[in-house]
Structures are given as C-alpha cells and as structure tokens.
Amino acid sequence: MSNLNSLRETLARKQAELASLEHELRAAQAAQFSELPAQLGVETIDDVIKTLAPHASPRLKGALAKAFGGKLPAPAVETAVESESASPAAKRERRKRATVTPELKDAIVQALQAGKTSNEVAAECGVSPATVNNIKRAAGLTKKRGEV
C-alpha cells in the first residue's frame, strides 16, 4: 500500500514538473515570436505574415487573401527565403529546341551507320537521344523485337 502511495506522490511531482516545463516553453515561444519582426527587418508580426504569404501553401494563400480583403499583399521586404526557395531547376533556362534539318538527319544516319551510339551522336549533333532514336527508326536502322 505504501508503494502505491509513493507512486502517486511521484506522479504528482512529475505532473507539476511537466506543467512548469510547459509554462517555460510557452514563455520562450512568446519571447521568440516577439523578436521575430526585428530579426526579419520589419515592424510587426503582420508584416512578417505579409512577407511570408507568397511562400504559403495554396490553401493558406486563399485564407490569407480573404483576411487581407481578397488579394494577397505584396511582400513588405525581400527576404532571404525568396532567394533560397527557387530550385536550381527553376533558375536554369530551358534549352532551345534544336531544328532538325535534312542535312542534320543525314549526318545522324551516317554517324549511326559508322557505329556510334545514340548518346554519342546526340551529344555531337546537339539533339536529344530520343530525337536520334526517332531518326534511327525512320531510317530503318532498328530491328523489330524478336528479329535476330
């Protein structure tokens, strides 16, 4: 019986300690949030939200637009998040499509007949391997499945 009472007392102490730690956590979060505008170089938490709004999920953007009267505000300041958010693929410009002329097709066919691989020919001619394979098939240089 005394063991049970001891466990109850220990549980009560741990619950009090948990409540104290939760209170400390809420205080630390409040302090951190109050310092956030200064760290980002804006005046208020509202400015922080306006700055981060363009980076929100579509669902949150809709809710923010309603809160701001139908339209998302322009960011108050440019943040480091904007420059880091763009992926390398988004920064890279798309390659211009190659124009496949009859002369280029002839050069590709000759290179394939000389024994070069599709990837080698594609790199030399500035076209994709898929384009080389399409030209190869159209020229009759491929075998159907099951042919030896």
Main attributes of the structure:
0% strand; Arc Repressor Mutant, subunit A; 3 domains; mainly alpha; 8 helices; elongated; 148 residues
Explain how this protein is built.
This protein is mostly helical and 148 residues long. It has three domains: 40 residues; 42 residues, no CATH class; 54 residues, Arc Repressor Mutant, subunit A (Orthogonal Bundle). It contains eight helices and no strands. The radius of gyration is 32 Å and the shape is elongated.
- Give the C-level CATH assignment of the largest domain: Mainly Alpha
- Counted beta strands: 0
* Overall shape: elongated
Mean pLDDT: 83
Structural class: mainly alpha
Biggest β-sheet strands, sense, barrel: none
> What portion of residues is helical?
55-70%
% residues in beta strands: under 5%
Q: Give the N-terminus to C-terminus distance in angstroms.
A: 88 Å
Number of self-contained structural domains = 3
Label the CATH architecture of the largest domain. Orthogonal Bundle
Output the radius of gyration.
32 Å
- pLDDT < 50 runs, ≥5 residues: 79-83
The SSE order reads: HHHHHHHH
The name CATH uses for the topology of the largest domain is Arc Repressor Mutant, subunit A
Task: Count helical runs.
Answer: 8
